[in-house]
Amino acid sequence: MALNVFDHDEYRPPVWKSYLYQLQQEAPHPRRLTCTCEVDNRPKYYGREYHGMISREEADQLLNQAEGSYLIRESQRQPGTYTLALRFGNQTRNFRLYHDGKHFVGEKRFESIHDLVTDGLITLYIETKAAEYIAKMTINPIYEHVGYTTLNQEPTLKKHLPRSPEAPDGPAPAKDGGNAEERLTSLVRRATLRESDFTPKYEKVHNFKVHTFRGPHWCEYCANFMWGLIAQGVKCADCGLNVHKQCSKVVPNDCQPDLRHVKKVYSCDLTTLVKAHNTKRPMVVDMCIQEIEARGLQSEGLYRISGFSELIEDVKLAFDRDGEKADISSSVYEDINIITGALKLYFRELPIPLITYDAYPRFIEAAKIADADKRMESLHEALKLLPPAHCETLRYLMAHLKRVVRCEKENLMSSENLGIVFGPTLMRAPDLDAMTALNDIRYQRLVVETLITNEDVLF
Predict the structure, then answer these.
(1) Average per-residue pLDDT in the chain?
(2) Assign residue 11 a region: left if phi > 0, alpha if psi is -120 to 50, beta otherwise?
(3) What pLDDT band is residue 434 in, cutting at 50, 70 and 90?
(4) What is the Cα–Cα distance from 19 to 347, expressed in whole angstroms?
């Protein structure tokens, strides 16, 4: 996919806001208050900051010398539990302290007490000084001005590149040489991507994971500094977008996956895969179906007979390694059942089934309706619950299976037989007990059978 940089009239590099960065620089530094005497039964994971079983009042007297001073004490009320006493805002604050291989008082886990206290002081200082500012961070985000709203513009290639958010006041331009794409933030990458006019614009939620950023980083939604020592924010595992945790709740569902983050084809979320490769459907579905229709429609027991599992695994590895360049021709895999097996395996390994968990109950309910017309109407409504990429892939697959049924005299595969094969492959019961899931198998078969028979009407 081509990368372009916008003309000055069309694109402005974001201005990264420095206020929170400056506050982090001003935050108190940790001051360990060491115990001058030997303390019995000191836990091995604490150092000289451990003072044994002392009261809150004693801890307060010891810590009243300087901001940021801290010690660890054993609780008098609950022996065997430990408290971090920390001086901040001219008062001593007490936090229940835990250790499970790492130190923590909340969600974040730290290798050392010093790091925990450093992060805590930064957080306390910023949230005390800038509480109102933080509450309003998501108002007027830069994301709306530099994000997907620019995707449909016709960019003009220029020699200048956007600036990177590696310093608080919008630092130096990228150096000459190297790959231009690697120098762009994920935010700017989205602003400079050009989508094909023929590619459907599927909606996709971001796949945010808590992330520790090395060095200063700025939120690509609100443009504010991401404060703290570790776990300062979240990063989308699919497109690389970096945002505050609170900003992630208001980011639009417009993830544009980056192939640098999407490393495989099998076991990858379907919408993520098609957006990353800029296709209507997963290439493995298109390529396998094209190969099957070119040389296998009349093969007896098509989809029912299994190919060698080791060779099916080879096809999977080929797609994961080579993507659309994978060679699945007859010269490499003579047995068409290997290709059908690879296609079924792809659907089985989807983390969210083709007929999604959310839509599953509606499809099962529709299959239970005795009246054929009402069942069709209910299935039509159920299809509307599927994400667009799932619905398009299901439509393409059902049209293919209908062509398989047209060769039933040769391949002996009726729509009922294909329903038996594909029912459990395309639909999986969400957290149902074994007996209910077993009872659902006949309805799964009926769903697929009806979709094949009425493909031209339902889609």
Answers:
(1) 85
(2) beta
(3) confident
(4) 49
Q: What is the pLDDT of residue 200?
A: 63
Instruction: Please state the φ and ψ torsions of residue 50, each to the nearest 5 degrees.
Output: -80, 125
Nearest to 334 by CA among 308, 300, 301: 308
pLDDT of amino acid 361 = 93
Instruction: Judge whether 455 and 398 are in contact, CB under 8 Å.
Output: yes
Q: Hey, what are 361's tokens?
A: 């109950």
Q: Do residues 287 and 332 touch, judged by C-beta distance below 8 A?
A: no
Nearest to 159 by CA among 316, 52, 4: 4
In this prediction, residues 365-394 reach a mean pLDDT of: 95
3-state helix, strand, coil in the chain (%, to 5): 40, 10, 50
The answer to whether the CB of 316 falls within 8 A of the CB of 266 is yes
Do 252 and 270 form a contact (C-beta atoms < 8 A)? no
DSSP line for 172-203:
PPPPSSS-HHHHS-HHHHHHHB---TTS----
What are 103's strand-pairing partners?
99, 110
Q: What is the 3-state secondary structure (H, E, C) of 86-109?
A: EEECCEEEEEEEEECCCEECCCCC
Secondary structure (3-state) at 230: coil
Asked if 390 and 357 touch (Cβ cutoff 8 Å), the reply is no
Beta bridge partners of 193: 3
- Nearest-angstrom CA–CA distance, 284 and 335: 17
CA distance 326 to 426: 24
Encoded tokens for 107: 């969600």
Maximum Cα interatomic distance, the chain, rounded to a whole number of Å = 91
Residue 337 corresponds to which tokens in the numbers above? 């059942």
| pLDDT (tens digit per residue) in 218-245 | 999 999 999 999 999 999 998 889 999 9
Beta strands in 300-459 (DSSP E): none
Residue 362 near residue 381, CB atoms below 8 Å = yes
CB proximity list for 348: less than 8 A, separation 6 or greater: 425
Residue 181: the pLDDT is 42
CA distance 34 to 189: 49
